[in-house]
Structures are given as structure tokens and as C-alpha cells.
């Protein structure tokens, strides 16, 4: 927040602002890759041995180590990783031998679909319920939706996933329990992801709305003789949505990057499950690639939210000009 | 306001004063003759018309606003706070009343009570009447009340920095009130909003700017433009200059005074600045711990101050002519509104308090023409000395004060 | 409205200014008074006490070696009954007993990882906020890097590299939540740094250490406490999540997430194996959330609606 105000204080045009933010993303991604690269280099076990199998002769393993550059110093290995990554080459998977980048690119649409549907469900439920709760504070509707929302944020996502499977595929047999066959298979995972986010968005919308309703300018609007529903929809909502949009953006980012558990529960062929599988197989290039990719996606979503902010809040927009 | 005094010649008697002091529950018998005339008229008609239409030239102009025994409480965590107690005041068209008091005296709550905007919960109006043009506003439906807010009665709030919606252009915020109350098209409302901007000294071209692009003084001008856009009969200004720089204060005050005179708008000016009151007000009411302790025509209250609290207020103003080394502030603090003292609410701080003051709650006493004081030590004016017309004024002006 | 509040608090403020020594205690007493009136927060506190009670007396409720760990294949996947209140798992172990013992791991990881994160993150945030300038810039840019990775991913990466055991799990969860504490502390230090009472302390010649520990830390504590209560909830969720994908507590040790994972393949025949541990997680998290919300309201009356 503060550095983006810093940037804006010189009254850059919008596109300069976006470019600058994209430029600032580079060191962050570099840092993320260094962080993950360092973590992964602690991983016990020899990748060369892993690739060739337990019974491979020692000379062959040594040769492969040399070939893969595993004997090089850490900094050299990291530099070559970054050098390749810039050209879109994230290396090859130790286990399948396929291009990591290509594998991510083929799976990312699945993750994106799931996250988008999840966040849509969350918005459609969360925003209206939050508004109604705030405008009828302490009513039955308010307290019951707050209890449900509280349960929603307290529920482990993967457990909700299992419970939904139990009800809708095991007992009722309406929906598939996992995999990716047709559109019906996206419903349960999307609901699982959406529920948790809906709870968070509901709570945020309610508290933001309550905060806004107490503002002086709402009193001004009432003193003007504005009807109550117009006070809410025209005066309060736009102000209240500003922090809610940040939360929605964050949630979308988390669903993109953090849907690991849900993807595992539903055997969803997304990037998250790819990462979990790679971790089990000690497939370092795939782990590195997926983490850096998901972190990049997460950061881009946050950037998009910052830009969107400018369109809603004139206090920020006027600084672009 | 000598005109008012001149017209009021009828039905003088001593009984008026006596009943005033006894029946505090607010029987509206005092304003009866004129009020009835007015009630029969449509509320949109102006006072002059109602007078002309009636043969009784001798009857005084009816009150634009008459508040009787207004009592407002707040309930937070089971604790009940009396924010406003038994507040009564009257206002005629074009008149300006200064409502003075320290922070926490209940001035803003009283103003919100008049507007029907006391936040509920925790606030609640538990008694009294707010009679505006013959109608008790407290009895109106919310829908009807909305046609009065911003149209007949407008309010200017204390802090212009927070009183404007940050995500709406200032022009739209002015145009909105015009669209609500006047049958105009969208483009007409825009034109009128631009005129209002010009009128408060802001170029109409700034219609599409947002509040954050204005300074505090400019924002307050916008707030004034919103309040005056529908040409209200009554303007309630809640410390309109407190949040502004001193130089800007004078500008905004002059602007309000000029516009008020131009449109003959009645005004309640809430302030703790006695100088502001002297500058713009005809009448003044001083509030302490939720009740009005002294009220009357400005000259009278300033020159013939009766209540010890008011005296203390004046005593705490630096006087350039005096050689005193220190100011003379009132000792002590305002009482906790959840735990008000017994008897007179001011007695713990009062230099003139007697034993009686801690047990007997004083009722308003008329001490002079239109001047009423809530103090046990103040003697009512002997009835024989008081000219009858003054008594009539008193009866109307400070019935339940 | 605002007038009422001012009038209400003015004498209080004056009183507080005159007696400085017992001030801190009365402040916390006031928070407790606030909290006590919040029924939901008290409900959370009661549940939480029960969970702590279960953790402390787990051995009295069920013996670890003979009941919690020992397999009893003849009784596998039994439904809830008088003997097994919540049924048995795929190895015939009493789910209720395992759940009771599971509170130990969850609470330990939750509390310790948050404590580690508060110590490291809080110090970083306080230093960054108080000294500002270049140091602030460096610390916060590093935090930005950590924040760019969703915390569950970071924790997964760390545990997978270091190996799955209790200590590594705690470290991973702590590290992944350091940035949020650094941010919270830095923000409140920044807002405090330029306030008049700090200026006043500086003006009378107080040292940096004195200012930080006497004036800034106590005032910055409130948001950290709230964040901490909610952080324990997040940490318990992360523990369960990591164990669920096999990166946390290893069998046969009882852990709620691992128990869930074990019952996953028997969902069709034995619903209770996955249902009860999940409920245990949810109720514990719910209690922490209720308490966290209540603490926030109590510590910041301004936010109370």
C-alpha cells in the first residue's frame, strides 16, 4: 500500500503505474525463486540417483550429476535456473522427463477454472449476505448468517470437501467424487473452495458496511432526505466495497495458489496437485516451477486488485492522472 | 426581534407565568390561538400569507418551530445516559438562535433529535414534541419526515472533512438533494447544483471534482450549498466553523449570514464560541448537562447574565480591557451523563450554590422579558412590573425551558 | 453521539493521567470486563478450556500405548457405539481416544509456532518500524517475498525439504506466518512512533530501549494478541492440512488431519472416521475465532458496534 502511494505521488499516468508495478514484481519473484531454490537444495537424497533408480551403477550416477550440474556451487546452479526460467524453461521433471513449464501451462487452466468459479460463488453469496446482515444488525438474519459464516471460516477446507463427497456423491450419488470428466465434476470442488471464501467475504462486507454506515457522510445523506435503501445502495455500498474488493482479490489469489488441499481431495488435475505429487516424488524442478508460477499468479492478482482500486476510489484515481 | 415584541399585545396575564412553572408536562395551551390558525393552513404556505389571510392583525406570527420538553437518552451496555432533558425552545421565521454549551452538553443530540436522526439504537427520544409548522415531527412517518429533511429543515455538520461522500462528486451530492425534493429533470438539477456552487463561492466547473480535491473550508462551502439547495425554512448548523482555520471561519460565517439573510432562513447555530453567537444570533440558549440553563434575547442574556454557569462561561473569556493575570475558568468538570447530580445539575460546580440546590431541581424561571433561567437563586420578576406584552413573549418563548 | 463518548471518557482519562502506576493492571482488567460481557467470546473460552483440559488429562482419559496406538484389527471400522463413542478407525483404534490425544499435537504446534512467529516477526517489525529508513526497506522487501507465496505453499515447501516431523512442521508454520506479524507490529509501531506521548518521552530524554519497551511495546500489544489468537487457529488448520497430505505428523501418532486422511478411502463405508476428527478441528478453530473476535472488540472499543 505505502509504496504504491509513493509511486503515485509523482502523478504518473495509469500505464506507467502498471509498468512500474510489474517491474517491482521482478525482484519479488527473484526472491521467491531464491527462497524456494534454497529450501529445495536442503532436500535429502540425490536427484541423479532418483532418476536412474536405486540399482544404477555409481559411475553412471556420478556422470549424470556432473551433466546436470549438481556438483556446481549453489550460486551457479541458481543462476542457471534463473537464466533458463527467463526464457520460459523451468527444466524437466525428474519423474516424467517432461518440460515443467509445458506441464504447468497445460494444467493451469484447470486451476484457473476452479479458482474463478470458487471466487464467483463466494462473491454471489458473501456480498449480499454481508450487506443484509449489516443493515439489519442484531436481527435474526444477521445473527444466523454470522453463525454460519463463523462456521465457514472455522471449517478445514479439505474436510468440507470430504463431507460434500460423503453427502453428494456417496449418499445421494448426484455428483462425481473426483477427477475431471465433465462439467459436473467441477461443482463440488468449486463449492468447497467457494464456501470458505464466502464466509470470509461475508464477514468482511458486514464489518466494512457497519463501519461505513456510521460515517458522517451517511448522516449527511440521511439529512438530505435520501431514502434508506438509496443511502445503502448509492452512498454506503461503494465505500464499503473498497476493502471488500481487496479481500476478494486476496481470496482469488489464495484459491489460485492455495487450492492444493482441495485439488488433492478431488484429484483435480490442477497445478496444486501437481505440486503435491512432485513433492512426494522429490521432483525438485517441478516443485520449484510450480511454486514460482503460483507465486507469480498470486502477485499478479494482487496487482490487478490495486489497479481496480483506482477505478473505484477517486482518491486514488486522481493520483494516476 | 423587536417586531415580535411589538405585535404581541393580546391576552396578557399573570397566570401564564404561573402555569408555566407548574405544568411542565407540556400542554400546548400557550401557543393555542396562533397555532390553530396555522394548523388549518397547508404547511407549505408562508407565515406572512397566513397572517394576511386572517383578519386578526394583532396576532403574532406563529412559531416556525416549537420544541417542547424534548428528552433523548442513549442506552449503552445497560447504562442509560440522559443526553437531552426537557429541552424547549421556539423559533420564528428568519430568526437565529444560538445554542451554546460545552462538548458533551447534548447540543448535537438535540439537533439530531429535531431532524429525526438520533441514531437508534443506542439513542431514543423518550418524550416531548417537535412542532414544525403546526405538525409534530416526532409523530410523522419516516417517509413524510424524509420530505422535510434537506427540504424544509437542513443541517450543516461539524466536520466538513468527513461530511461528504468521498466517492461521489461534490456536484452530484448537491444535485441529489435537489432531485429528491424538487420536480426537476436530472440536467436541471445539475444546472441548479452548479448555481449553488457559484453561490457559495466555488466555480461551477468544479462540479465533477471529488471531495478530497477540496480544502476544509471549501468542503464546508459545499456542505452549505447542499443544505441550502432546496431553500429550507430552517437551517441547523452544528458547529459549522469549529473544524476550520480561524481565517476561514470568518469567511464561512459571513457566507452563512449573508445567505441566511438573503433567503430569510431561520437558523439554530450550535456552537461553543460566544463570539460567533454575538455576531449572528438574535436569541441564545445555554445548555449544560443536557438541559437549557438560560435562554433569552441575546442582548439581555449577554448584558444581564443570570445563571452562574453562564456567568462562568463569560468569565472564562479573555478580556482585553481587564488587567487580570489569569482567566477565570469554571472549576470542575461536566458531570458524567450516566450519573447526574441530584437537584440542580450545576450545583457541584456552582460558586453560589446553597444547601437547597443539591436537593431541589430548579425549573425555568422568567426573570425579564423573554429571559428565562433555570436556577433556584434567581427570582421571577414581580408580575406587576412586567409589561404585559413581554409576558406574552415569555409565555411563548420559554414555556418549558 | 461523539459528544457523549467524550463526556463519558473525559473524567476517566483525567483520572488515568493522575495515577500512572496501577494503570496497566486496570487496563487489562477493563479488557477482561469487556470480554466477560461478550457471550460469544466466553463460549469460545469455555470450549477452549475444555480442549486444553483434554490435552492436559489425555493420559487419564485413554492410555496412549494400549488404546491410542495399539492396533486392534478385529474391531476395525466399527461405527459409534457404547464401547467406542465415535467408532474405530481402519486399525480398530478408538477414534474418541485418538481425538483426545490429538488435542496435544494441535495445541502444541498452534501455540509454539505462533510464539516463534511473534518473537521473530514482532522483532523484525518493531525494528523496521522504529528505525525506519533503509533497514525498514530491506526487512519489509524480504517480508514481501515471503508474502508473495501463499503461506500453505511455503509451509509445504519447507516441510518437504526438511523432512516431515513435529519440529520441522512447527518451524515451517512459524516461518510462513512471520511476515504477517512483522507487518502488524510495524504498522502499530509506525502509528505510535510519531505520537505525542512518544515525542514527550523522547523530549525528557528517555532512551530508545526505554521508549520501545515502556511505551511502544505495551501499546502495540493489542493487535498482536488478536492476530495471535487467530494465528493459533490458522496454525492448527495448517497442521491438519499438512498432515492430511502426509507432510505433517506421521502415523501412528494421533493427529486430526492425519486421522482424516486415513479415513478418506473408507468414506463410503465408515463416515465416522473422517467426520469426527473434522468436527474436532472445526470446534477448536471456532472457539479460537470467537475468542479472537471478542479480544479484538475488547481491546479496541472503537471497533465495537
SSE inventory with pairings:
The complex is a heterotrimer of chains A (321), B (401) and C (305).
Chain A: H1 2-8, H2 14-41, H3 47-52, H4 58-68, H5 74-86, H6 100-135, H7 140-154, H8 157-171, H9 184-213, H10 216-223, H11 228-258, H12 260-265, H13 271-280, H14 284-312, H15 314-320
Chain B: H1 2-7, H2 15-22, H3 32-40, H4 47-52, E1 65-76, E2 79-91, E3 96-100, H5 107-115, E4 123-132, E5 135-136, H6 142-148, E6 153-156, H7 160-163, H8 170-181, H9 186-199, H10 216-228, E7 234-238, H11 246-263, E8 266-271, H12 274-280, E9 283-288, E10 291-297, H13 298-303, H14 308-315, E11 365-368, E12 371-373, H15 388-397
Helix pairs in contact in B: 8-9, 8-10, 9-10, 10-11
Chain C: H1 2-18, H2 23-37, H3 39-56, H4 58-61, H5 64-69, H6 95-131, H7 133-147, H8 151-162, H9 166-193, H10 196-203, H11 208-244, H12 256-264, H13 271-299
Helix pairs in contact in C: 2-13, 3-6, 3-13, 6-7, 6-9, 6-11, 7-9, 8-9, 9-11, 10-11, 11-12, 11-13, 12-13
Describe the fold and architecture.
Chain A has 321 residues and is an all-alpha fold. Chain A has a domain at 100-319: MetI-like fold (Orthogonal Bundle). Chain A is 79% helix and 0% strand. Chain B has helices at residues 2-7, 15-22, 32-40, 47-52, 107-115, 142-148, 160-163, 170-181, 186-199, 216-228, 246-263, 274-280, 298-303, 308-315, 388-397, and strands spanning 65-76, 79-91, 96-100, 123-132, 135-136, 153-156, 234-238, 266-271, 283-288, 291-297, 365-368, 371-373. An eight-stranded mixed β-sheet of chain B has the order 6-7-8-3-9-10-12-11, sandwiched between helices. A four-stranded antiparallel β-sheet of chain B has the order 2-1-4-5. The radius of gyration of chain B is 21 Å and the shape is globular. By secondary structure, chain C is mostly helical. Chain C has a single domain (46-61, 91-299), classed as Orthogonal Bundle (MetI-like fold), CATH 1.10.3720.10. Chain C contains 13 helices and no strands.
